[in-house]
Every structure is written in structure tokens, then in C-alpha cells.
């Protein structure tokens, strides 16, 4: 029997559920990836770091599958790459290769669920089955429920139930190498298409500290293991190297979440436990999206659908273009555009600033992040935005409004992060770095910054903005 493994957000060939199941089931196993035009055509630009990250990771995966097969006594293998609509490409490949089953790892996004439903139906019409497996999370869908059998909507009890349910079985890796001789050789003429032949151009990815593929994921994880102990203390300070930077690898499955969670769980200690909690947040938001797919478009809480946001295109442009006059917000937005990454503390700060200081609809910010984040993930991004906007499950209470200057003083006390991304403020003294507009003309001259010329004055007065937000929310919630 032959089988086909359809890779999507799981670009690795170790500890891989669908690949393992296929190798157990069939004696000839093909591997494939589709550059799905339904996804690619919707991207606004032809230079996209994520497409390049996938492309580079596929190159590595191709060679790794080949080496795995040879090492197990097989005839070599690799990945078959197509460019087109997934539903057409997978059905055509499965038919041409004569497989009886297609294996894949489950995706929980509404559009992916619909795509998979269509693929399954088209395959079934050809007498081919589609089998899907849990792989990208530790616990999925209805696996962790409240005592009354309902999905959780609050994180802490979810985390407690998650930890209680965790056992060695969940964390066990799928042994691939043992069966790798069953990987089928690639048909003649199968080569990885160039980035340009799928309509994309190279980006600055190679210049960023973001190594691609399984090797890149391993390298970042190894580095983080030397720092994991201090994660709890360091993780909130964007100027410090406190976090793992593994989000892109988790997004594209070049690391195994089981391996990461198993390491943190077995290691124990405060840093590892806090980091494991972050992985649980990831499961939590995937679970929320699966049970409540309406969150992809709407507020989680129906009563918060009635919030009337401001229509303020100029303020939105200032936020996007790092011109708000609040240095921490502007530095964070520059980090996003220059690297495709933004530190978690800063994601919270800029999301709160957009929704509660500028009064702008969170959907706009969510879309901006979706366009620019290398690690963009619908479940986590939507969860993060709805948390900050107070429209989500277990969200920040609406009357808690981050003060961007206080956040800056607390989490970037010497302005090291600010100065890294806003070199125009490099010479501003520490006491003004969080609010440079407070400098008098003599201080501005000494620092070489003329407020309003070299760096903008604040686009809103935070105290007034805060009052408006409190009114906006009390009005919206009182209506219900
Ligand atoms: P670490 O601190 O090292 O955390 C390890 C991993 O845990 C992360 O890689 C991520 O997979 C997971 N994780 C951490 N925090 C969260 C969280 N709050 N929710 C879900 N998973 C989490 N994360 C994304 O992966 N993609 C997104 O599109 C995304 N958008 C966000 C938008 C907003 C407004 C906010 C507030 C948060 C968002 N996050 C998103 C969550 C978080 O900011 C990033 O996962 C984190 O900054 C990635 O850096 P890291 O890998 O160094 O994180």
C-alpha cells in the first residue's frame, strides 16, 4: 500500500504524528507540500518573510527526508512541492501516485477546516481516505473540559486542568527513523520550485537572527535552554534577551511542541514552569478558536459587539508608521516592521494603545499584525488582540488601561530598547526618554531633537483618551 503525507504547518521529519501514522500504515510513503494559491494570492506583498521561511525550511526538509530514508536502508526520498489550489493539487497527486490514504496533521482555523472538508470530499469521490491527527498542540478541541463537560473560557482553571491531564503519553515523541525505509523515492524530475517561480522575491530574512528549518529551531531552543531558568524575571523586558524567539518555529512546526513541553515539564523550576504556561496559552487560544470560530470575525463576548470605535484614519496611520510620539509604542512598531517580530510585552502595549488610547477598532490592529508578524497565527493573534481590547474571553478588564509612559518606565527603564529602534532619541537623557515632549527647548537642543520636527509630539493626551475609553465601554456594556 502507498500513502501520501500532506505537510502544512509541520515542516519537520521528527516527532511528526501524520508521518508516523503513514509509515505505520503503508510500505511506500510520499511526502508533499502545496504552496496554496488561496493563501498566497491573498498576501498583499510579493516579498514576504514567511513565504521565504517556508521555502527555506522545505529545502532542508527535502534533504532531511532523503537522508533519513538512506540511513534506514531505503532508496532515498524527499518532498514533492506543488503550487496551486490545495484541493486540486492534493487530489491530483494522490491519484497520480496511486495512494489509498492521505495523512495530515489537524489545523483548527475555520478556513483550513473548510479546505480540509473539501479535500476530504474530493478524495472520497476518488476512493481515497483523508486521515488527520493531533500534532500542533498538546491538548486539542474537547480534550480539556470543565467538570461539567464544557469548554473553558478562563485561562487559569484551564491551565490547572491541562496540567492535571498531562502525562508521559502526551509528551512521547513519534519515532520516525525506525520506519524511515518506507519513505518513497521522489518521482524523476521532482525539484523544489524556486521562490520566484511561485511569484515571490527574496526578503531580508537571511539578515535577521532567525535561522530557518529544523536546524534553526534546534539552535534557538538550545540557546534558550541556557536561559530558561531566568525566563520569569527576564521575559517582560524587551531590551533583554529573555524570551525564546521560537514562535515562528512553533507556527511552522519546524520544532515539535511535544519536545518543548516535555523539556520544560521535566526540567521543573520557576522559569520552566512559567514558559510551559505560555505554551499552554497557545493551546488555550487554539481551543477557543475551535469551539468559538466566530471570534475570527467578532468579539468573543456578544455584549462587546456594540462598542462604537472611532473612525480615525490619521491616528491609525500614525500608529502603523511609528509616529505616535510615545517612544515605547513607536519603537515597538519599528521592531515589527524591521524584523517581523515584536516582543510580547510590546504587543500588549501597542494593542492597548491602539484600542484604548486611540479608540480604534481592534480588528484593524489585528489585520496589521497579520500582515507583518513572521509568527502570525490566527488563534494567538486574535486571542491577544481581544485580550487587549477587553472583548475576549478572560480578557483584560475594560477599565484597566495601560499608560504607555508608565509601561515604558517599568519595562524599559533606561530606554535601551527605545534607543535601539529610535536612534533619533539616542541622546535624550534617561529622565525624558519615556516622554520626550516634556523636554524644554534647551534640553531638546542639547539632545539634538526638535520635538515636532525630528520626533513627533504625542498624537493624543493619554488622560483624556482614558476618559473617552471609560465612557465608550461603560456605555456599550450598560446597553446590554
Ligand atoms: P516565549 O515567551 O518564548 O513563549 C514561547 C511560546 O509560547 C511562543 O513562541 C508562543 O508559541 C507561545 N505563547 C507565548 N505567549 C503566548 C500568548 N499570549 N498566546 C499564545 N501563545 C503564546 N503569538 C503568536 O505566536 N502569533 C501571533 O500572531 C501572536 N499575536 C499576538 C498579538 C497580540 C496583540 C498579543 C498580545 C500577543 C500575540 N502573540 C502571538 C503571543 C505572544 O506575544 C508571542 O507568542 C510571543 O511574543 C512570541 O515570542 P517568543 O516565541 O519569544 O515567546
From TrEMBL:
Alphabetized Pfam families for the sequence: DNA_photolyase, FAD_binding_7
Entry keyword Heme: no
One GO MF term attached to the UniProt entry: FAD binding
Site (Electron transfer via tryptophanyl radical): 309, 362, 385
Cofactors (names): FAD; (6R)-5,10-methylene-5,6,7,8-tetrahydrofolate
Recorded catalytic activity of this chain's protein: cyclobutadipyrimidine (in DNA) = 2 pyrimidine residues (in DNA)
Superkingdom per UniProt: Bacteria
Positions with a binding annotation for FAD: 231, 275, 278-285, 375-377
Protein's GO biological process: photoreactive repair; response to light stimulus
PANTHER family, alphabetized: CRYPTOCHROME, CRYPTOCHROME CIRCADIAN CLOCK 5 ISOFORM X1
Name by which UniProt lists this protein: Deoxyribodipyrimidine photo-lyase
Organism: Rhodoferax sediminis
Biological classification of the source: Bacteria, Pseudomonadati, Pseudomonadota, Betaproteobacteria, Burkholderiales
Amino acid at each position: 500500500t502507498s500513502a501520501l503525507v500532506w505537510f502544512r504547518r509541520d515542516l519537520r521529519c521528527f516527532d511528526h504524528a501524520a508521518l508516523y501514522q503513514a509509515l505505520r500504515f503503508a510500505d511506500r510513503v510520499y511526502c508533499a507540500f502545496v504552496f496554496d494559491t488561496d493563501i498566497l494570492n491573498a498576501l498583499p506583498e510579493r516579498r514576504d518573510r514567511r513565504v521565504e521561511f517556508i521555502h527555506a525550511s522545505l529545502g532542508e526538509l527535502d534533504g532531511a527526508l532523503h537522508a533519513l530514508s538512506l540511513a534506514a536502508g531505503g532508496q532515498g526520498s524527499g518532498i514533492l512541492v506543488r503550487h496551486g489550489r490545495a484541493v486540486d493539487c492534493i487530489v491530483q497527486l494522490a491519484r497520480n501516485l496511486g495512494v489509498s490514504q492521505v495523512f495530515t496533521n489537524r489545523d483548527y482555523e475555520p478556513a483550513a477546516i473548510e479546505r480540509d472538508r473539501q479535500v476530504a470530499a474530493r478524495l472520497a469521490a476518488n476512493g481515497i481516505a483523508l486521515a488527520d491527527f493531533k500534532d500542533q498542540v498538546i491538548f486539542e478541541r474537547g480534550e480539556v473540559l470543565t467538570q461539567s463537560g464544557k469548554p473553558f473560557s478562563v485561562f487559569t482553571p484551564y491551565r490547572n486542568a491541562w496540567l492535571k491531564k498531562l502525562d508521559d503519553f502526551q509528551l512521547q515523541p513519534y519515532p520516525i527513523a525506525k520506519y524511515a525505509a518506507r519513505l518513497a523515492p521522489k518521482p524523476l524530475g521532482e525539484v523544489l520550485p524556486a521562490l520566484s517561480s511561485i511569484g515571490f522575491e527574496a526578503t531580508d530574512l537571511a539578515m535577521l537572527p532567525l535561522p530557518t528549518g529544523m536546524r534553526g529551531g534546534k539552535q534557538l531552543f538550545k540557546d534558550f535552554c541556557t536561559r530558561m531558568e531566568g525566563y520569569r524575571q527576564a521575559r517582560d523586558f524587551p531590551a533583554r534577551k529573555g524570551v525564546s524567539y521560537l514562535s515562528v518555529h512553533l507556527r511552522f512546526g519546524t520544532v515539535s511542541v511535544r519536545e518543548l513541553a516535555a523539556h520544560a515539564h521535566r526540567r521543573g523550576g520557576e522559569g520552566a514552569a512559567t514558559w510551559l504556561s505560555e505554551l499552554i496559552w497557545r493551546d488555550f487560544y487554539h481551543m477557543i478558536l475551535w469551539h468559538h470560530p466566530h471570534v475570527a470575525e467578532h468579539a468573543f463576548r456578544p455584549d462587546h459587539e456594540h462598542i462604537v470605535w472611532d473612525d480615525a484614519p490619521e491616528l491609525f496611520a500614525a500608529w502603523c508608521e511609528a509616529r505616535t510620539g510615545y517612544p515605547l509604542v513607536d519603537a515597538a512598531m519599528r521592531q515589527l516592521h524591521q524584523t517581523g517580530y515584536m516582543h510580547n510585552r510590546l504587543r500588549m502595549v501597542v494593542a492597548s494603545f491602539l484600542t484604548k488610547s486611540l479608540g480604534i477598532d481592534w480588528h484593524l490592529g489585528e489585520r496589521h499584525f497579520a500582515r507583518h508578524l513572521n509568527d502570525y497565527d490566527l488563534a494567538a493573534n486574535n486571542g491577544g488582540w481581544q485580550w487587549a481590547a477587553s472583548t475576549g474571553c478572560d480578557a483584560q478588564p475594560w477599565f484597566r488601561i495601560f499608560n504607555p509612559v508608565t509601561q515604558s518606565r517599568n519595562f524599559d527603564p533606561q530606554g535601551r530598547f527605545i534607543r535601539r529602534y529610535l536612534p533619533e532619541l539616542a541622546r535624550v537623557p534617561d529622565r525624558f526618554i519615556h516622554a520626550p515632549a516634556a523636554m524644554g527647548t534647551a534640553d531638546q537642543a542639547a539632545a539634538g531633537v526638535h520635538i515636532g520636527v525630528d520626533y513627533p509630539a504625542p498624537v493624543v493626551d493619554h488622560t483624556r483618551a482614558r476618559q473617552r475609553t471609560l465612557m465608550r465601554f461603560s456605555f456599550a456594556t450598560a446597553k446590554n
